[in-house]
Amino acid sequence: MVAIDTSLPKDIRILQAAEEVFSQHGYEKATLDEIIALADVGKGTVYKYFGNKEHLFYKLVADKNAPFLEKLHQAVNSVDSFEEKLKKYFEVMVHFYVANSTLWQIICFEMLGGTNGCRVEPDGDDFKVIPRYNSVKVSEETSERILRYHKILHDEYDILAQLITKAMQDNLLKEDTVPEITTKFVFFGVAMSIFNQSDDIAADMTDEEAARIITDHFLRGNAR
Q1: Which run of H or E residues covers position 130?
Q2: If you ran DSSP here, which 8-state letter would residue 57 be given?
Q3: What is the pTM of this model?
Q4: Among residues of the chain, what percentage have pLDDT more than 90?
Q5: 11 and 39 in contact (C-beta within 8 Å)?
Q6: For 30-139, where are the alpha helices, taking DSSP H only?
Q7: Contacts of 97 (CB under 8 A, 6+ apart)
Q8: 121: phi then psi, degrees, rounded to nearest 5
């Protein structure tokens, strides 16, 4: 575990300690006691600032996600062509997901309901949580938690969805392209590749090179 600077404000120390502990153990196995010990604060201080473990984790990832979204918007607005917008989007995405791989794996694999037998479906302009199996009962608390984390990812891939939808309107993609399916296929394919990449690939490939490969494969495939 890394040492936390005890001269920092207590809430910052708690967030830094939480990132370290969650990254080491995942969400379920992380304990507030370990976070408290690393941050060198009292248990009451954690409850004062964050309420409970889940609220602490959400605050941690939400604070990281806000500037990430801003960078995605800035990146795609900094260039003109669809291909360049894709490259810029994926440069920012790859950089962020590599840097925050463990925390975003927790979102995908622990917080989105997969382990609770749930999934998220569109519900008009919103979303709803659906049990995967008849025997699964979803509490209101569980549903609200899942939707909070779903929104984090949705806000990220919706920027890509808007690019793909606009490209279809401009006749840059095949007529049978379904933006929602295509977006999720590409977005989560990239995310899973980052989550499972080997150390040598991570060390040898720049964000720009990764973005170029992703964009090229999306637009042109592997065919000669």
Answers
A1: strand 126-131
A2: H
A3: 0.93
A4: 83
A5: no
A6: 32-39, 43-50, 53-77, 82-99, 101-106
A7: 104, 190, 191, 194, 195
A8: -125, 150
